[in-house]
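Sample intake sheet
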Amino acid sequence: SALHPMPPLSSAFAQARGWQPHHTPRNLLLALVGEVGELAEILQWRSDAELATLAQDTPDEWNHLGEELADVQIYLARLADVLGVDMAAAVADKQAKNARKYPEPQA
């Protein structure tokens, strides 16, 4: 399914917990990398066939996968927010650039 715009981990959420001083770009990036590592840990030794049936075979692990994907998206959104990057515009620009760089094959 497509990624839908999501509210970033808001400044208010972080501020209410006293996290603002720790939400520096460097710290958020390192947290993001850590979450990507946790995601990789779930996937690294499974075959594509095992991953295709993960939801049916091991629902708890499927839920864990979703949680790690959510963590990655949350940290990425917060990093973009702290840096002032409009992710919707950045993604649209990047997709347009990729379409020019990698045009569809002509029949």
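Comment: The longest helix spans residues 59-83. The chain is about 70% helix and 0% strand.
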